[in-house]
Amino acid sequence: MKISARGQLKGVITGIEEGAVNGVVAIKVGENVLKADITMDAIKSLELAEGKEAYAIIKATNVMFAAGEERISNLSARNQLAGTIVEVKEGAVNGHVKLDLGDGNVITGSITNAAIKDLGLAVGEKALAIVKATDVMVAVD
């Protein structure tokens, strides 16, 4: 399967919180645990279970950034991935920032050029990639 989402982070499911309609799937990717809020129908049809390999799929447009690597405690978005910026490409209005998570995984975000400049995002700098659990899709082989 090939998809356009740039964030395809492979890991292992470490937990599933089941709800009436949706559930939260925890996927350990390197040293990070990402949470995905998906439907119970999807959890069942993908046969998700603890210990199963899965991918956290994240579109670049759903990735936010914060300068530095300190987690933000008063923020509802719980997926906060610390890393080092390895690439910044500015376009006419928006740019792409690639963040190496230090475990072989790289996440790409698409943000405005103004945000890149205001946050001082540059190659070699530390940053947080921030993603809401509702913006994480789950895939399996």
CATH topology grouping of the largest domain: OB fold (Dihydrolipoamide Acetyltransferase, E2P)
Helix/strand order, N-terminal first:
EEEHEEEEEHEE
Distance between the termini: 9 Å
| Beta-strand content | over 45%
Number of domains: 2
Low-confidence stretches: none
Q: Give the biggest sheet.
A: 5 strands, antiparallel
Average pLDDT, all residues: 95
What's the helix count? 2
Q: Which of globular, elongated, flat, extended, rod-shaped describes the shape? A: elongated
**Helix/strand/pairing class, anyone?**
mainly beta
Work out the radius of gyration: 15 Å
Spatial order of strands in the largest sheet: 3-2-1-4-10
The count of DSSP E runs of length 2 or more, i.e. the number of strands, is: 10
CATH architecture of the largest domain: Beta Barrel
CATH class of the largest domain: Mainly Beta
Amount of helix: under 10%
Overview of the structural elements:
The chain is mainly β and 141 residues long. Helices cover 9% and strands 52% of the residues. It has two helices and ten strands, in the order E-E-E-H-E-E-E-E-E-H-E-E. The strands form two sheets. It has a five-stranded antiparallel sheet with strand order 3-2-1-4-10. Strands 5-9-6-7-8 form a five-stranded antiparallel sheet. The protein is elongated. The termini are close together.
